[in-house]
Amino acid sequence: MGLRGILLQQQLPLAAIILAAIAAATAASEPNSSCIRRCGSLQIPYPFGTSEECCLDRSFLITCNNSTPFLGGSNELKVLDVSMDGEMRVSSQIARDCPNEPGNNASESAYGFSLLDHFLISPTKNKFTAVGCNTVAVIVGIIVGDENYTTGCLSLCNSIESVGNGSCDGIGCCQISIPQGMSLFGLAVSSWYNDSTVADFNPCSFGFVSEDEAYNFSSLDLMNLQNRETVPVVLDWTVGNETCTDAKTNLTSYGCKANQSECYNSINGPGYFCNCSSGFEGNPYLHDGCQDINECEISKPCNMTCTNIPGSYKCGCSKGYEGDGMKHGTGCRPIVSNSRRIAIELEYHL
Ligand SMILES: *[C@@H]1O[C@H](CO)[C@@H](O)[C@H](O)[C@H]1NC(C)=O
Ligand SMILES: *[C@@H]1O[C@H](CO)[C@@H](O)[C@H](O)[C@H]1NC(C)=O
Ligand SMILES: *[C@@H]1O[C@H](CO)[C@@H](O)[C@H](O)[C@H]1NC(C)=O
Ligand SMILES: *[C@@H]1O[C@H](CO)[C@@H](O)[C@H](O)[C@H]1NC(C)=O
Ligand SMILES: *[C@@H]1O[C@H](CO)[C@@H](O)[C@H](O)[C@H]1NC(C)=O
Ligand SMILES: *[C@@H]1O[C@H](CO)[C@@H](O)[C@H](O)[C@H]1NC(C)=O
Ligand SMILES: *[C@@H]1O[C@H](CO)[C@@H](O)[C@H](O)[C@H]1NC(C)=O
Ligand SMILES: *[C@@H]1O[C@H](CO)[C@@H](O)[C@H](O)[C@H]1NC(C)=O
Ligand SMILES: *[C@@H]1O[C@H](CO)[C@@H](O)[C@H](O)[C@H]1NC(C)=O
Ligand SMILES: *[C@@H]1O[C@H](CO)[C@@H](O)[C@H](O)[C@H]1NC(C)=O
Ligand SMILES: *[C@@H]1O[C@H](CO)[C@@H](O)[C@H](O)[C@H]1NC(C)=O
Ligand SMILES: *[C@@H]1O[C@H](CO)[C@@H](O)[C@H](O)[C@H]1NC(C)=O
Q1: Helix/strand/coil for 83
Q2: Which atom of ligand 7 is nearest to the CA of 216?
Q3: Each residue of 5-48: pLDDT tens digit?
Q4: Which pLDDT does position 139 carry in this prediction?
């Protein structure tokens, strides 16, 4: 298929994806203890939840189908992990075009997904990659503020020998960054022309969005990517779509519910996320979610006596000793009497 075909095809995923987007709403109150917080091996902490009563709003719904977790109530985006630091990994498909294969499936040459409110494709952790010797790949998306985004890259090569490992510089592999604020993308991959000369070592053209660290190009991928269906993508999630300062003006809707929590503005788009304050641990999105860390028990920072206080601790020395009491400080030394100290100093100076 030529470039014109690709450009026509790019409309296809975009339109389908826009139609598939569902508006999220219905804020829930604090979840109760009967909520199921596990799906397969995945732990599902609030604001996420497996039913609408158990999550902050529908965007955070993770449905469990046969022990497989899916994001946002559809059966499309498989969740790989959830981090309380505002990140999540989902599974994304590799699009492919195999012109010489009898069963070449046109619908597999395009792929995309749309995210609900509060989720964006991480611009710092992901890349758009195309692999092939005869390959054009196009990505279209919508970035925050309803701006359309379209770009692409070209990957060519004449022989397997010309392809190096590791670098995606356009010979066998090309790669481009993801812009900030992207909540929806569609990509299409196509073979530039029906070239039988590269078909032996590169029967297909591939295109995908993936976590940068999870994919290192190898010349073997020109063949082997045929056996791989999915790659991980990192999403950034936030609660709320405003800044911390604005969010704090309405404590009813403010997401950092725990007393001992801090609010952080997202660096990749609008919104904020929460963290327990230093010296506390747990879930900042729940009222009593952040619990004091007992440093005396856990890190044993003191030499003699240790007193745990909320958010911190105090070291001390027993009677007859002096110092800050900290293992990584001056510790505790026996107190030397004044007359003895003078004697020691005198000795030193003489
Ligand atoms: C949790 O909510 C469910 C349904 O809303 C209710 O049936 C159940 O009694 C609640 N459990 C607790 C412990 O409040
Ligand atoms: C669970 O997944 C199967 C196949 O993967 C699908 O047929 C079924 O509709 C899904 N169930 C729900 C409740 O979405
Ligand atoms: C590409 O070429 C092969 C044989 O050279 C042919 O079988 C196949 O149908 C062609 N594909 C397209 C999309 O033109
Ligand atoms: C083509 O791929 C789509 C999506 O993966 C699949 O639903 C469809 O059944 C495939 N069609 C054929 C003929 O293999
Ligand atoms: C973005 O693209 C869509 C679909 O092609 C179109 O309907 C919309 O008008 C475009 N928006 C802008 C701001 O260009
Ligand atoms: C790339 O690495 C693979 C092993 O991962 C190796 O088999 C192949 O020969 C390497 N290709 C080049 C061009 O170095
Ligand atoms: C890719 O290479 C980087 C740096 O060399 C390494 O940190 C990373 O683990 C590799 N990833 C995979 C999936 O091999
Ligand atoms: C923020 O979210 C609220 C409620 O979900 C919505 O009414 C409002 O339009 C959003 N604001 C922006 C700038 O997206
Ligand atoms: C604060 O947020 C709550 C819940 O979203 C909303 O019902 C209420 O109107 C908001 N108050 C103000 C002053 O905006
Ligand atoms: C949180 O702060 C409020 C007001 O300062 C106080 O009444 C409440 O007891 C605190 N809750 C916890 C768990 O510390
Ligand atoms: C959240 O707090 C923990 C413990 O204080 C810290 O290790 C972590 O880096 C913080 N995360 C962010 C995103 O600030
Ligand atoms: C503190 O105690 C550790 C072990 O109990 C000891 O090795 C260290 O020397 C002490 N440090 C000081 C400054 O007293």
Answers
A1: strand
A2: 1
A3: 544 455 444 444 433 433 333 344 577 778 999 999 999 999 99
A4: 94
Which of 63, 75, 91 should be mutated for ligand 2, with most atoms under 8 A from CB?
A: 75
Protein residues whose CB sits closer than 6 Å to any atom of ligand 11: 85, 264, 275, 278
Ligand 1 atom having least distance to the Cα of 33: 13
Q: What is the pLDDT of residue 15?
A: 43
- Rounded distance, CA 132 to CA 62, Å? 35
Cα of 76 vs centre of ligand 2, distance in Å, is: 10
Mean pLDDT of 329-346: 77
For ligand 6, the distance from its centroid to the CA atom of residue 104, given in whole angstroms, is 27
Nearest to 233 by CA among 258, 256, 214: 214
- Prior bond of 47 cis (ω within 30°): yes
Q: To which residue do tokens 């569902």 refer?
A: 22
Ligand 5 center to 19 CA (angstroms): 13
The DSSP bridge partners found for residue 222 are none
Condensed to tens digits (0 to 9), the pLDDT of residues 103-159 reads: 788 888 999 988 888 999 999 999 999 999 999 999 999 887 778 889 999 999 988
Residues whose CB is less than 8 angstroms from the CB of residue 60 and which lie 6 or more positions away in sequence, other chains included? 47, 48, 49, 118, 237
Interatomic CA distance for residues 237 and 87, integer angstroms? 6
Measured between alpha carbons, how far is 92 from 17 in angstroms, rounded to an integer?
A: 14
Give the tokens for residue 113: 């997904």
